[in-house]
Amino acid sequence: MRGLGRVVMGAGLVLALGWSGLWAFARGQIEDKLDAGLDRIRAGGLAVEVGAKRVSGFPFAFAAEFEDVTFTDPATGLRTELPALATRVGLDSPGEIVTELPDRFTLTLPLDRSLRATIPGLPPRLTLELEGEEIALRLPVNLEGTPPRSGALTAKRLSIRPIDADLGTDFSLRMVGLDANGALGEPDAMPGGSVGLSQGRLSAAAFALEYTTSGGGEHSRVTLGLSNAKLGVESTAKDEQTLRRVLNGEPGDSGTLTLESGALDGALVVAGTGPTDGRLDASGRAFWGSLAIEKGGMETKGRLTAPEITLAPADASNPYRGGVTAKTLETTLLSPVAPGPQMRAVRMAATLEAFSPDTALWQRLDPESKLPRTPGRAAIEIQGTGRYTKPPGQMRPGEAVPLELGNLSLSTFELSGLGAAATGRGDVEFLQPVNEPVGDFTLQLTGALGLLRRLHEAGLISEKSLQSLATLAAFYTRAGDGPDKLVTDIAIAPGEIRVNGDRIR
């Protein structure tokens, strides 16, 4: 047995010495490949600066550590500065390269000229600070030496915020439990082998965005928080050139972005503006949304479960403080992506189911329960054709949307609540190049006069207001086919508007 022990120990020593020699040989190979890889990156047009570098990890991994690493794209001005970088390949997962990023580094982004023209005051470049914990990039090992086509980014915590910029605005983005991965399309024929993102996924246990503006004694802050958020993107575009065509609205390939999350909460805080000072909170139990670009059109859809909006004016005497809840809110918007000579489909639809003031707001508005408290409903759908006359991104502050319309149809309009209801329908065409509408609308009201009386009994409108509204109803409506039913027919023609046959303009 003692001899067997010496044999085993001797064999172990030989294997250890052999492994050490193999690791030392491989280390030299890795150092050569690192230098060759940096040369390939530089040859592709990306400027790379590296301070000290070394290879370590014996005995169970190969690791390359870098200091003071800077990547710069001369063509775009994109630049990132990393104080340290550690990349390793372990024997437990030899097909994966893991790069550990520093807990704090910067990324400088060039800002497009058209964006700076739209938002005056933006600098030519914006520097972002990325700060987090356990930030790691995972890429597959490619023995041929070509760039990887997929990868994953994980972080226990990651935040992004601008630094060294006087923007008049500030923002920060924070994510906890980040897990993102993506796959690229094939390189195109352009120099440098640019590629487009064919699919990607991002999830975070918690997501928080904060945006603030200030100036002239006024201050506003917007916050948005999501839990268990999942973001996905897919595109049939295989290269950057095709992806640009998709974003420019040219027919052919398509792209889709989806977002779903658990609880959602947001807030708007305004100060220094006078009557509008206060806080607006919004929340929901679940959210789903999508954005799709295909055949020159962009369609967005959204669904929020159990939405709640609460208003808290800074003026404590304001009676309209409180909240409104609903069962669901669904929206759809379809529009062209970019300018073009042809009219394209446009559509806007929204449905709010079972909305009602919360208990506190009901008590302020109607303490004696004069008003029916049956939940209300609102729905609208407008569809037609239109085209952009110039890129929407080139709009200046206060400028009208550069959308030229062909026709619009109000296919759905429903509003009910407080014991009253309204429905409507209509069709309009727009004469070009003056964008002048021509068409007809019909609006039907049920229980409107009874609602006015109840609002007066509840003390929400005065006797004078009640009389004025009743007079307007008599002037602009006609009797319908039942008790407390009113109808309004509106006809729009060049230079005139008629209500129930009477010209009012």
Task: Please outline the helices and strands.
Layout: H1 2-43, E1 47-49, E2 53-56, E3 61-72, E4 79-90, E5 96-100, E6 104-110, H2 113-118, E7 125-133, E8 136-140, E9 150-163, E10 169-184, E11 197-215, E12 218-235, H3 240-247, E13 255-261, E14 264-271, E15 278-284, E16 286-294, E17 297-305, E18 308-313, E19 322-325, E20 328-336, E21 344-357, H4 359-365, E22 376-388, E23 403-417, E24 420-431, E25 436-446, H5 448-457, H6 463-476, E26 478-479, E27 485-493, E28 496-499, E29 502-503
Antiparallel strand pairs: 1-3, 2-3, 3-4, 4-5, 4-6, 5-8, 6-7, 7-9, 8-9, 9-10, 10-11, 11-12, 12-13, 12-14, 13-16, 14-15, 15-18, 16-17, 17-20, 18-19, 19-21, 20-21, 21-22, 22-23, 23-24, 24-25, 25-27, 26-27, 27-28, 28-29
Describe the 3D structure.
With 505 residues, the protein is of the alpha+beta class. The chain is built from six helices and 29 strands. The chain has helices at 2-43, 113-118, 240-247, 359-365, 448-457, 463-476, and strands spanning 47-49, 53-56, 61-72, 79-90, 96-100, 104-110, 125-133, 136-140, 150-163, 169-184, 197-215, 218-235, 255-261, 264-271, 278-284, 286-294, 297-305, 308-313, 322-325, 328-336, 344-357, 376-388, 403-417, 420-431, 436-446, 478-479, 485-493, 496-499, 502-503. Strand 24 and strand 25 form a beta hairpin. Helix 5 runs antiparallel to helix 6 (463-476).
